[in-house]
Amino acid sequence: MRTLKLTKDSQKNILESLLKRSPNNYTEYESTVNEIINNVKENRDKAVFEYTKKFDKADVDASNIRVTEEEIKEAYELVDEKLLAVIKKALVNIRKYHEKQLQNSWFTTEDGIILGQKVTPIAKAGVYVPGGKAVYPSSVLMNVLPAKVAGVEKIVMCTPCGADGKVYPSTLVAANEAGVDEIYKVGGAQAIAAMAFGTESVPKVDKIVGPGNIFVALAKKAVFGYVSIDSIAGPSEILVLADETANPRYVAADLLSQAEHDEMASAILITTSEELAKKVSEEVDKFVEVLSRKEIIEKSLENYGYILVAEDMDEAIDAVNDIASEHMEIVTRDPFSVMTKIKNAGAIFIGEYSSEPLGDYFAGPNHVLPTNGTAKFFSALSVDDFIKKSSIISYSREALERIHTDIEQFAECEKLTAHANSIKVRFED
Amino acid sequence: MRTLKLTKDSQKNILESLLKRSPNNYTEYESTVNEIINNVKENRDKAVFEYTKKFDKADVDASNIRVTEEEIKEAYELVDEKLLAVIKKALVNIRKYHEKQLQNSWFTTEDGIILGQKVTPIAKAGVYVPGGKAVYPSSVLMNVLPAKVAGVEKIVMCTPCGADGKVYPSTLVAANEAGVDEIYKVGGAQAIAAMAFGTESVPKVDKIVGPGNIFVALAKKAVFGYVSIDSIAGPSEILVLADETANPRYVAADLLSQAEHDEMASAILITTSEELAKKVSEEVDKFVEVLSRKEIIEKSLENYGYILVAEDMDEAIDAVNDIASEHMEIVTRDPFSVMTKIKNAGAIFIGEYSSEPLGDYFAGPNHVLPTNGTAKFFSALSVDDFIKKSSIISYSREALERIHTDIEQFAECEKLTAHANSIKVRFED
Fold this sequence. Notes:
The structure is a homodimer.
Chain A: E1 3-5, H1 8-19, H2 30-43, H3 45-56, H4 69-78, H5 81-99, E2 106-110, E3 113-121, E4 124-128, H6 137-150, E5 154-159, H7 169-178, E6 182-185, H8 188-197, E7 207-209, H9 214-223, E8 228-229, E9 237-242, H10 248-259, E10 266-271, H11 274-290, H12 294-304, E11 305-309, H13 313-323, E12 327-331, H14 335-339, E13 347-350, H15 356-361, E14 387-395, H16 397-413, H17 417-424
Binding site for NAD(+) (chains A, B): 128, 190, 213
EC number (chains A, B): 1.1.1.23
Family (chains A, B): Belongs to the histidinol dehydrogenase family.
C-alpha cells in the first residue's frame, strides 16, 4: 500500500479520487436506465420478461416469476446447515438491535392544544438483492429486518435468477427467515422500475432499498419521488484510525476485509505512528499473497488504498471527519474519547477486537451504510427508513380564539386572504 | 366545486389526475436544469452571476451577492411591525415543537459488548427560499428552525433578489430571527447547484431544503446523492374528511385556503353526508366571489377540486389513506378515534377549530409536508432531516472470542476470505 504524509493537499486529492467512484458520475448509463424504466412503466410485465431474457438469459413469465413455496423448501435442502444456523443467530442480533430504534408516537398537551407526531410504518417495502459476482445472504437480513421491525405489512423482494431460472438457495433461505412476503425473479434497473410503478406480476411498493450495480443505483435515483429509496450505495470503504498502540496485523487484516469487496473498494489507514504505517504495509503485503481474492485486493489497493501519516491525533481526526468513511475503526489509546470527536462515519468500530466484519454479519447494527462521503448527511439503513411521521394538530375553540388575530395578521402579510378567511369565519358571530 | 360519488373508479381517476402534478413529470425541463447545474459546477461564481443577470435581471457579483448586515438592518425598518411581532410569536411555537423531536444517542451494554447509535447534526445546511409570486416569511421559519434546533453549525440561505438587487425585507427579517448565518442573492436551479457544489462565493452544504418552482425541484433531485435533500415539493393539497356534524362554512373556507396557493393546488372534501356536500359547494361559491385570489382559486378548483360522497366512514377513510394528502382535516364525530385509522397524511388537523392555516403559520408543526401521495413514505420536515446516526460497535476480546467461529463461517459461505481472515487473525495465537 502506498504511504503518504497526511497534508491538506493529500487529503483533498484522496477525497477527489474517492468521490470519482460515486454512482452520480456514471451519467453515461442514464439514458439506458431511463429507457428501461420507461419501458417497464409502459409495458409492465412484458418489458420485465424481455429484459430478464436479455440480461439474465432466463425464461420468466407470469407463471414463474414469483418464487414458490416449493422453491423455498428446495433451497432449505440445498443450503449449508452451518450457514443456516449462523443466519438464525445473526438474525436474532440484528432484530434485537433494530428493535431499539423503534420510535413512539408522541403528543404534548397545553390548555386546549394537542400537538404531536403519529408514527406509522410504510405499507409496502421493496428489497433489491443482487445476484452476480457474490451471494450475500447477510445483505438480505440487513435490508429486510429493519422493515420487518418497523411493522411494514408487505415486504417484496426482487433478485435476478440464473439462466436456469433458479435463485441462489442462501438468498431464498435468508429471505424466508427474515420474513419476506413475496420474492420475484427480476434484477437490474427493470426490477427497480417494476417495484416503483408496479406490473401485472410485481406489486408497486412505497420504498425501495438494497444494494446493486450502477444500473440499479441510477434506477433508484430516477424513481426517487415516485417512491422513497435508501441512499445510493457506492463501493465499500474502511478507514482505520490508529496510533502506536495498534496491532499492525489486525489493522492490515481489517483493511483487506473491505479491499476484497471489489476493485473500487477503498481501504485507508490514518495513523500518528510512522512505525505502525510501515508495519501495516508489510503485513498487508504478506496477507495479500495468501488471500483468495488477491487480484481484486491488489487492484482496489492500487486504486483506493492509502496509508496516511498524520502529525497528531487532531489532524488525523479532521481527516477522518472530512473523508466520512462508510466503516471506521478506532484503534488507539482511549478509543471512546476519540469516538466523541468523530462526526462523520457510517459505523464506528471501537477498540482492537471490534473488527469490521463483525458488523457485516453478526453484531446487529446494519451493514447498509452511507458511502462516498455521504456519511456527512446520511445514516445506516434503519427502522427510521420504514416509518413516516404525520404531524398532529388539535386546537379547541378557546385555544384558537386566543391567537386567531395573530394568524390572520400573518396570512394577510403573506397576501393569502383565503388563509385569513378560514380563521376569521370561525369567529364571525 | 364538482361533486362525485366516491367509487374505486372515481378514486383511481382523481389519484391519477393529482399525480400528474408531480415534479417527476416535468422531464422536459431536465436538460435545461442539467445544463445550469453543470455550468455552475464548472464555472462556479461566473455562471451564478450570469444566470442571476439573465433570470432575475440583477447585477450580482462577488462583492454584493451576500446580504450584508446593513441590508438586514434596513429590512427591519421596512417590515411591518405587526408582522415582526407575529413572526417572533410563531418562532417560539415552532422552536418548542421541534425541540420535542430531538433524538438522543443511545447504547446498550451486554457482557463485553457495547452497541448503539451516535446522533450528530449535519454540519452545513442550505435553505432555499423562493421569491416570485408570493413572499412567505413563514417558509423561512419552517425550513430554518429544524436545522437550528438540530444543532447545524452553519445555515446558508439562497433566495432570488429583485432587479434592484434587493431581497424582500420580510424574508430577511424572518431569516435573521430564525438564525440563518449567511444569505446569498441567488435563485432557481443555479442556487441549488451553487449550494450542492460550492462556488467562490456560495459555500457547499451537506443538505438542501426548501420549496421552489419546477426548476428548483428538478435541480434538487439532480443533486441528490452529492448532497441530501428534503422531499421534492409539489403543489399544495388539502383533504377534509367530514360527516354530517361538520360546519359547511368552516369546511368551505378551509378548502379554499389551500386552493388559493396556485392553479395546481388541490382541495378535496370526502364526506359521508350528501347534505354537507351540497352545503359546502354552496359556501365555496359564495366565498370565491369575495376572495382576492379568486382567479387562482377558480382554476385550482376546476383542475383539482373535488367533493366526494362516500357510502360510509370506512370507505371514506380508505380513500383518505389512498390519496395520502399533504394536509388532512378530520371534522367528524369522535375525530380522535378516526385519527387512529389515518395512515397516510402529512399533517392531521383534528376537530372543527383546527383549521389548516393554523398549521401554516403558528401552531408549531412544520408546514413543509409531503405532497402528491408521498405521505405514504415521506414525513414533514423535521429535526430528523438535519441529523444523522453513526452505528457504534465495541466488542471485548472475550465477547468476540465467543462468536468468532460464527462470523468466520458466515464470511466463508459468502466466499469473502479476507473478511474471515480479519477475525481469525485475532485468535491465531
